[in-house]
Amino acid sequence: MTQTEKTMDIDHLIAALGLGDRLGGEGLAVRTPIDGSVIAHVAETSEAAYDAAVARAVAAFETWRRVPAPRRGELVRRLGELLRAHKEALGRLVSIETGKILEEGLGEVQEMIDICDFAVGLSRQLHGLTIASERPEHRMSELWHPLGPVGVITAFNFPVAVWSWNAALALVCGDPVVWKPSERTPLTALACEALARRAAEGLEEAPEGLVQVVIGGRALAERMADDGRLPLVSATGSCAMGRALGPRIAARFGRALLELGGNNAAVVTPSADLDLAVRAVLFSAVGTAGQRCTTTRRLIVHESVREEMLSRLRSAYAQVRIGNPLEPGTLMGPLVSREAYEAMEAALARALAEGGAVDGGGRVLAERYPEAWYVRPALVEMPAQTEIVRTETFAPILYVLTYRELEEAIALNNAVPQGLSSAIFTTDLREAEAFTGPAGSDCGIVNVNTGTSGAEIGGAFGGEKETGGGRESGSDAWKAYMRRVTSTVNYGRGLPLAQGIRFGD
Ligand code: UN1
């Protein structure tokens, strides 16, 4: 695609998605990783504008929390319809802003549509409990009420889906959303804000300020972490980001929902269906150019199938078409930035120094795209799980380790600081159950015969240890966006006290 074509394409997308009013001027330059060119300028949010945005969210909460939850669901239903109508344009913009292939850009929008559908159903199912009281003529119950404005901080790699997991739930739970997207991907965020605004138009009960985007970097994230008007801050990004923000949120007794790094392993056992395992590992290791928090970064393969698995993987890797993510047939687009490329190169150098055998890596397409960072994915055979293997590098590097006994594989899987996702490839029921059981993988996501990435929205998404412990998206993740009330009602005339205490009678 030539420069002119791409510019026209962007203008067309900006018009189609209705995000024009926040663009232009001297603000932040937004570049596409596809060729490194500047595609737009976006104004950063000043301190005063941020304060005004949160004040609007606080005011919106006053109204929104009184709107019946199924009517709140109507807003999210409308948002889902608009996302359906704009899937092509938004998916394309996701690809342009992140560099992920179009198929994945569209998949990301589908993930948003799915969570909207989920949240609409949820809006009629924010169920509490009835609890047996120990006292006569008493009823105990648990109620769930809206919490307040939610701060959402998202990363470049899933610029809109992760927001939607938070926003769709927050909105039906009665909470306005103040969203700080990655500085690299403000356009898709502004597009979502515009769609959410349109969804609210015509819905009488919806106040202004339910969904607002604020643009900025670390200082803005810290301001949100410190802001007592945001009872919940949901942040997705690196472990370092979580380490910086988590204690600040805790210091004011705010709630943090953290979804941080992953260092996900796939265990390939002697009984594995290798055709399936190769395809699954390829998608999870190479997809999104290794820039998912769920990317497979470690392959723990049984010694008896190691050679077979590796030779099949090598030929699969050789067939991966690397290039412009908007072109049909491309499987791997660029890394997001020069820094990402340098981090990959540094990791490969360290792997070499730690005894690894590196196959792949290195820059490609530099002549065609001098300002962009396309790389070959790397397979790295390691003698042991050394320090670099235990480190998350956001790039398509797959470290290969060997094991003999399943316990050893499970121990290797667990011996990293992160605990997001994991997978085992086996047709042996005992092995599958051992891996998914209480003494198995210590991750939040534990899969059998499917890869570590590409989770559906219906399950709770998140992980343990340095991954941060938060759960977003499906299952009962909605409870994080509400406050729990335990209520005891005495419908008798006496005053029996709990624990049988008699007090002055
Ligand atoms: C992320 O990389 O932060 O499971 C989210 C997956 C996607 C979400 C990844 N559904 O790979």
From TrEMBL:
The keyword Iron-sulfur does not apply. Its EC number is 1.2.1.3. InterPro entries: Ald_DH/histidinol_DH, Ald_DH_C, Ald_DH_CS_GLU, Ald_DH_N, Aldehyde_DH_dom, ALDH7A1-like. SUPFAM superfamilies: ALDH-like. It is an enzyme of class 1 (oxidoreductase). Keywords: NAD, Oxidoreductase. Residues 28-483 form the Aldehyde dehydrogenase domain. The active site is at 259. The keyword Oxidoreductase applies. One of its GO terms (molecular function) is aldehyde dehydrogenase (NAD+) activity. Belongs to the aldehyde dehydrogenase family. Homotetramer. This is aldehyde dehydrogenase (NAD(+)).
